[in-house]
């Protein structure tokens, strides 16, 4: 999968993920606080793996090697917002930076320290190529650089921490490459043995989907404006919502918090598409990543995918939530009966049509899903970076060709924090989705009898 993220990258399709962290100044900090912080950060000019690794190609595949000419000024940048320094200007800066490809001649990451934000605040925008980290490992990396103690100082930036455990990323030398090939060969028979049964399972799901809406097949996603060709231009929008409100709804409807979130997204997409006169008759399908990570490693990707019916064809919010819940429950039940190898192979087989289209563009009608919705668990307690309080953290993910919207969220300090990234030319006025998400909460609260 790490190799795939590298092969998929092109100018209109950058394959990096990012996070935007918003901080408030420590008590008593002077006007030069951010400049002094930037000066101290630059002293950490010898990064630890994977932040000191750049790409090379050996034996026909990508591998990592240590960058012997590491340039801190390229990777760490101190910037200021134009006046008036509103969140609008911050999101515009992130949109522009997220549109730019990372330089493959260098380690695949950048960090931008941003000052000039109203209300004695500053931000840190950090982007890393998806071949280096997945969402869970990126969250773990980010949390290691923060502290629950507001008095703790001299905390290094994320790239200066020694890795706890080596992940399953790309090989870093020829010996590792040969070992990886040996492991692949050794496990090939076990992997291949699962394919016939899984192919039958996919066929069975496809047939059941014709009669039961809870079953989502790999050819069920309709054609929408979300699934047009994209450009390299991005728009980023972010907003926080009360976690207690969503938990109250999950209790009222006897469903999970993720079910509520997916139903919110279904409502927001329905309203957005109606505003664009583009709502299809069939429901939109979301691809929802599911972590398979069982250890504390940080490198590489260990994820599978489920397909969820978003119920965008349903007007009633309670009925939409029930459809979402049944769809997710069915997918989880299927995975609960599989081994990790079977889950990965089932994911590969079910996503193969979409992957073929992303790589070649030869089958635009073969569509397994319309949108990506990802939920990455975050910290519950307030965190600090050298005394600066973390006020919000917003994920910034990836847009793919013919999948022009990605809705990623995380939790922090009693909030659910959405980060929406889209092709700004394909989806005009995408930021309206934030209003529709709030609207969806209010409608579910009315349906639950809260208001």
From TrEMBL:
Record's keyword annotation contains Membrane: no
UniProt-listed Pfam families: WS_DGAT_C, WS_DGAT_cat
Keyword Lipid metabolism appears in the UniProt entry: yes
GO molecular function, one term: acyltransferase activity
Segments forming domain O-acyltransferase WSD1-like N-terminal: 1-261
Pathway where it operates: Glycerolipid metabolism; triacylglycerol biosynthesis; Lipid metabolism
Catalyzed reaction equations: an acyl-CoA + a 1,2-diacyl-sn-glycerol = a triacyl-sn-glycerol + CoA
Enzyme Commission designation: 2.3.1.20
Main enzyme class: transferase
NCBIfam families (UniProt xref): acyl_WS_DGAT
Similarity section: Belongs to the long-chain O-acyltransferase family.
Stated name of the protein: diacylglycerol O-acyltransferase
Origin species: Alloalcanivorax venustensis ISO4
């Amino acid at each position: 999968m790490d190799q795939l993220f590298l092969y998929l990258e092109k100018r209109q399709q950058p394959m990096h993920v990012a996070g935007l962290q918003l901080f408030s100044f420590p008590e008593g900090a002077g006007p030069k606080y951010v400049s002094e912080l930037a000066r101290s950060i630059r002293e950490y000019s010898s990064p630890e793996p994977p932040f000191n690794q750049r790409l090379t190609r050996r034996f026909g595949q990508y591998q990592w090697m240590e960058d012997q000419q590491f340039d801190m000024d390229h990777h760490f940048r101190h910037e200021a917002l134009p006046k008036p320094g509103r969140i609008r200007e911050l999101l515009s800066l992130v949109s522009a930076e997220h549109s730019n490809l990372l330089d493959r001649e260098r380690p695949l990451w950048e960090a931008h320290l941003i000052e000039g934000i109203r209300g004695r605040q500053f931000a840190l925008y950090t982007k890393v190529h998806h071949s280096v980290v997945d969402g869970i490992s990126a969250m773990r990396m980010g949390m290691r650089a923060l502290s629950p103690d507001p008095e703790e100082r001299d905390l290094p930036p994320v790239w200066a921490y020694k890795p706890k455990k080596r992940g399953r990323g790309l090989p870093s030398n020829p010996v590792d490459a040969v070992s990886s090939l040996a492991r692949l060969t050794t496990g090939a028979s076990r992997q291949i043995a699962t394919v016939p049964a899984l192919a039958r399972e996919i066929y069975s799901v496809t047939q059941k989907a014709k009669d039961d809406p809870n079953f989502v097949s790999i050819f069920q996603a309709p054609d929408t404006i979300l699934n047009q060709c994209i450009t390299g231009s991005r728009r980023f929008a972010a907003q926080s919502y009360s976690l207690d409100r969503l938990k109250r709804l999950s209790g009222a409807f006897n469903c999970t918090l993720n079910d509520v979130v997916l139903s919110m997204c279904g409502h927001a997409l329905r309203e957005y598409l109606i505003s664009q006169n583009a709502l299809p008759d069939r429901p939109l399908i979301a691809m929802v990543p599911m972590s398979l990570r069982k250890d504390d490693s940080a490198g590489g990707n260990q994820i599978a995918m489920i397909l969820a019916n978003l119920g965008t064809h349903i007007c009633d919010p309670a009925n939409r939530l029930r459809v979402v819940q049944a769809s997710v429950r069915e997918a989880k039940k299927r995975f609960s009966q599989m081994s990790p190898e079977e889950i990965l192979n089932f994911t590969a087989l079910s996503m193969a049509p979409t992957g073929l289209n992303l790589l070649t563009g030869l089958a635009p009608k073969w569509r397994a899903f319309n949108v990506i919705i990802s939920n990455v668990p975050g910290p519950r307690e307030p965190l600090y970076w050298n005394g600066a309080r973390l006020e919000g953290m917003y994920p910034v993910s990836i847009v793919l060709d013919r999948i022009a919207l990605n809705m990623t969220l995380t939790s922090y300090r009693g909030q659910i924090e959405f980060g929406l990234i889209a092709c700004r030319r394909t989806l005009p006025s995408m930021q309206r989705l934030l209003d529709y998400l709030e609207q969806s909460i209010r409608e579910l609260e009315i349906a639950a009898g809260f208001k």
